[in-house]
Backbone:
């Protein structure tokens, strides 16, 4: 039996950071400081199940850097989430906020549960108790959570309410990704996917690829992946394959992502969609296509399969889907990678817009959000590609170099306390 190498995402994050730090000749005192998270909290707390049984649940909140502003980053519910994954995700938030120039640092949270096996009441109790456990370290000017894998706007509404009950007043700005009726922003639900599509449009223009008729494969059919599929379908692209945790489907003539979403809604998976053939998640990644959008979890393209990838553009809607070793192989093959800290930064950008709107109690129109988001994504794309070309490095190192320079500058200017 073949054993799969276990890849530690925080080690991958550090390798990417070190590559960029070398490129920008970052001084050691700053390098040693920002490699590691500023603050880490692990909590274990009891939750009463519907059966009356009580289980002990573990959760994490990591603040990687607050040099450029309050911590910012989602909360993930997953049975495999662990402290190193949360550290990696928190550091990616630091770099992501810096890449798009929004005044936040990086943070992330995780709760070790299998949300698919819990009732809505159990999920609410987990969310409220976890929020109370981390309440002392979050806040609208300290650290602002948001949704991530298997959490959503309802989760954020419960978090906001719990934090508000503890504070004795309604604090809308403590989390983003909330429903519109409780301080959410227009456009937040599709922001991650929309940002990814804006970067794909820029990359396609640069490479001379016509999106009308372009063949697209999407791994992960959740908030980021399903909406990205719909948005690029609306631009005329052909969605040839999509997948979720239960498996994938393919139809070379093209899938209609809205119909696939309805099928998933009804059956719990994309698998079995009418007119499609089954395909494994691994086969999907290796399809002959123009654009591959990994939109599920980390480490799906490694040195083991990078040589078999045939896409022209990889747009990382997911965080950390490509390992540092795979990056080199993809670069040598001439595949244009839009790295996660750029490709999926639309989510945190509109989270920032939501936070600004909550703080001002003044809410913007959808068209304004979309226009601001496009401007941010286009400018950030140009800055990253210019730096990658200047230093003759792959796009991820260019993006990190751009981000690490900004965080380092903030640290230098703020100095060392005391
Ligand atoms: P989600 O829970 O809405 O969707 C995740 C999807 O991935 C689901 O369809 C699930 O079935 C699928 N999936 C899970 N395990 C899989 C596997 N092993 N193989 C294939 N598919 C699998 O989560 P999301 O919010 O869309 O997040 C997806 C990725 O995007 C994550 O890496 C997340 O960190 C990243 N991201 C999300 C946001 C956001 O705003 N939601 C922002 C930035 C980055």
Residues:
């Amino acid at each position: 039996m073949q054993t799969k190498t276990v890849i530690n995402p925080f080690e991958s994050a550090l390798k990417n950071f070190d590559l960029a730090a070398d490129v920008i000749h970052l001084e050691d005192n700053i390098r040693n400081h920002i490699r590691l998270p500023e603050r880490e909290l692990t909590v274990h707390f009891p939750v009463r199940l519907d059966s009356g049984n009580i289980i002990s649940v573990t959760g994490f909140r990591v603040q990687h850097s607050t040099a450029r502003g309050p911590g910012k980053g989602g909360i993930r519910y997953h049975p495999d989430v662990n402290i190193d994954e949360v550290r990696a995700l928190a550091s990616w938030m630091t770099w992501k906020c810096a890449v798009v120039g929004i005044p936040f640092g990086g943070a992330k949270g995780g709760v070790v549960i299998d949300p698919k096996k819990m009732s809505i009441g159990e999920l609410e109790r987990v969310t409220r108790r976890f929020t109370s456990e981390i309440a002392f370290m979050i806040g609208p000017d300290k650290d602002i959570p948001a949704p991530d894998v298997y959490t959503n706007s309802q989760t954020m509404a419960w978090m906001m309410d719990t934090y508000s009950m503890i504070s004795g007043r309604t604090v809308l700005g403590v989390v983003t990704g909330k429903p519109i009726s409780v301080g959410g922003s227009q456009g937040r639900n599709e922001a991650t996917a929309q940002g990814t599509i804006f970067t794909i449009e820029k990359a396609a223009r640069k490479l001379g690829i016509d999106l009308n008729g372009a063949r697209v494969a999407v791994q992960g059919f959740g908030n980021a992946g399903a909406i990205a599929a719909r948005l690029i379908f609306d631009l005329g692209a052909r969605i040839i394959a999509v997948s979720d945790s239960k498996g994938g489907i393919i139809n070379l003539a093209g899938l209609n992502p809205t119909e696939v979403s309805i099928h998933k809604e009804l059956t719990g998976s994309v698998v079995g969609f009418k007119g499609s053939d089954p395909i494994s998640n691994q086969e999907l990644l290796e399809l002959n296509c123009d654009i591959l959008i990994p939109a599920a979890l980390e480490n799906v393209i490694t040195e083991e399969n990078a040589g078999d990838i045939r896409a022209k553009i990889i747009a990382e809607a997911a965080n950390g889907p490509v390992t540092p070793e795979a990056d080199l192989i993809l670069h040598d093959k001439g595949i244009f990678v839009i790295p996660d800290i750029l490709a999926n930064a639309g989510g945190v950008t509109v989270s920032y817009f939501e936070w600004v709107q909550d703080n001002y109690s003044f809410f913007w129109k959808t068209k304004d959000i979309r226009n601001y988001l496009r401007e941010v994504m286009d400018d950030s794309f140009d800055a990253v590609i210019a730096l990658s070309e200047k230093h003759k490095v792959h796009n991820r190192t260019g993006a990190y170099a751009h981000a690490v320079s900004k965080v380092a500058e903030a640290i230098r200017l703020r100095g060392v306390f005391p």
Notes: The chain is about 45% helix and 20% strand. The first strand starts at residue 39 and ends at 48. The two ends are 56 Å apart (CA to CA).
